[in-house]
TrEMBL record:
GO terms for biological process: chemotaxis; signal transduction. It comes from Desulfacinum hydrothermale DSM 13146. It is a multi-pass membrane protein. Residues 590-655 are annotated as: Disordered. It holds the Pfam family dCache_1. This is Methyl-accepting chemotaxis sensory transducer with Cache sensor. GO terms for cellular component: plasma membrane. Residues 646-655 have a biased composition (Acidic residues). Belongs to the methyl-accepting chemotaxis (MCP) protein family. GO terms for molecular function: transmembrane signaling receptor activity. Keywords: Cell membrane, Chemotaxis, Membrane, Transducer, Transmembrane, Transmembrane helix. The chain crosses the membrane at residues 12-33, 300-322. SUPFAM superfamilies: Methyl-accepting chemotaxis protein (MCP) signaling domain, Sensory domain-like. Residues 340-569 form the Methyl-accepting transducer domain.
Amino acid sequence: MKGRKLSLTQKLMFIGGAIVLAVVVAIGGVSIWKSMQSLIGLSKTNSQQQSEQMAAMVRMVMEEEVGKAKAIAAMGPVVQAARQVAAQGASGAHDAIAQANEALRAIIGVAGEQYEGIFLSDASGTLFGGVLHDGNTKLYPGVQIKDRAYFKRAKEAGRPVIGQVIVSKISKEPVAVISVPLKNEKGQFLGIVGVTLKVGFLAETVSQTKVGTAGYAYMTDKEGTIIAHPDKKLILKLNLHKVPGLEPLAAAMDSGKSGVVEYRFRGADKISGYAPVGINGWMVGATQTKSEFLGPVRAMAWQVGAVSVVAVLLTLLAFFVFSRNMTRPIMVATEGLSDGADQVAEASTQVSSASQQLAEGASEQAASLEETSSALEEMASMTRQNADNAQQADSIVKASSGDISEAQRSMQALTQSMQEISQASTETQKIIKTIDEIAFQTNLLALNAAVEAARAGEAGTGFAVVADEVRNLAMRSAEAARNTAELIEATVKKVSGGESILKDANQAFQKVAEGASKIGELVSEIAAASGEQAEGISQVNRAVSEMDQVLQRNASTTEETASAAEELNAQAQQMRQYVRALADLVGLKAHGRKGEKRKAASGPSTERDVPVPSLKAPSKSKKGNGARPPAVSQKEPAQVSPEELIPFDDDFSEF
């Protein structure tokens, strides 16, 4: 159940069971892991050894067949037929070829189904003799093998070679040709003896080799194509490189070395040992599924699980018996402590009730005195504020009077400046008029000069141009002088208007200065009256202070009593917490009947320790006779209850 606490018995059983389970699981896990690693290592070693043994066996068998092929090539009829064909051609060596065929037929009869056939070729790669496993000698003569790899290799190497596994065109079965070169006394190449060996016997030999219970062996060529497998349908049709999931196996076997590889194929984890045969890049592999050789590990895991369950059950039983015997005395002690805590709580309740009655009386007196003191404080504060404001207003009015006087002087100076500007404008008009007259005279002189230049003819042309320019300048000067005169005239008019406005403003400032002087006198009178009023309130406040000293002594006595009750209640509450913790530890329900009855009688309360508020009297004003001791602060004395003044926790529902 959510939020439920465990008992001591349950805790011991849980811890003991967890420890035993952890130990058993750890030991079992380590044992299983080591066993699994040992089995995997052993299986890898076995797979590699089996693959190496099979590779050695295949190599030995093929070397034995090569020896047989060399013996056939050394037979007298075969050598004689090869020499006569080289000397006289196939048509000239008919008898020798017939004798060689007879000798090969006898060998085929002894070998049985192991050989598909034995054939003879000349140096050009044309067959001139040969016998099939059924004794037929007519199929081979005339067949061309000069392009066959086994013929080229035997001719170039000059020693026996084994060809790659291919599908025979005669029997449609996988075969490998063992080629032995034929030479004369001088070592010249005369042709080859070819023994077509059926590799089906290799597949049977490999497939009969068991790897574990369901494992098997197989063999591939250098291209990764299967040449021996328990499933004959896969021979020469399955290539490891082209099957998804077999890439790790194909890459390992391409190395040409022996080893072990792990891979996952069709949802199963497998291991495969591999080893080179040493012939044509052939590789032998031995594969096995991991689940097969890890079967004992799974059985061990089940055994470890069963042992773990039994060990945990036995441990739980032992801890249950042990904890029951140990917790009985603790439960008895817990019940005794619970009864003692209830008795202490009852005593603290009685003391608290008496303290509450004393606190009620002190609280009511303190509330009344506080209201009176608060009203006096507000009156004193307002009176002081009025006096301060009046003084500030008086200072501001005096400062304003000085500013207004300064403004009057500035206005008078500004008026005089405007008059001087007007006079200067008049003088400037005269100067502009003089400039205009000079421009007019210059224009006349330029006109006369132009007339004289016209009379002079060509000699006065240059002088005429100069006179014309002088006349233009005189006209521009006259026009500028007229514009300037108009602007100065307009400025003079505006200065005159401004002078009139300044006179009106100066008169207004004089009236403002007179009003400010009257306001200053009124504000001074208000400030004096406010000071006298503040002094009277201070005397009343001193009388209230004397009353507060008497009330403070009563409040101090009440506070000491309430503190004693609070301390007793805190000790009872702390004892309950200790008993509750001990009861939770042993799994005991510590709800006592007395606590329940007390809860019903006194009502709900919090279980945390609530401090008793101190009783403080209202503080004196700054103009009082000194510092005052703290007093009760109650804004609504009619609503004060004993629980608010001296809170006492009496809720035992959780104990």
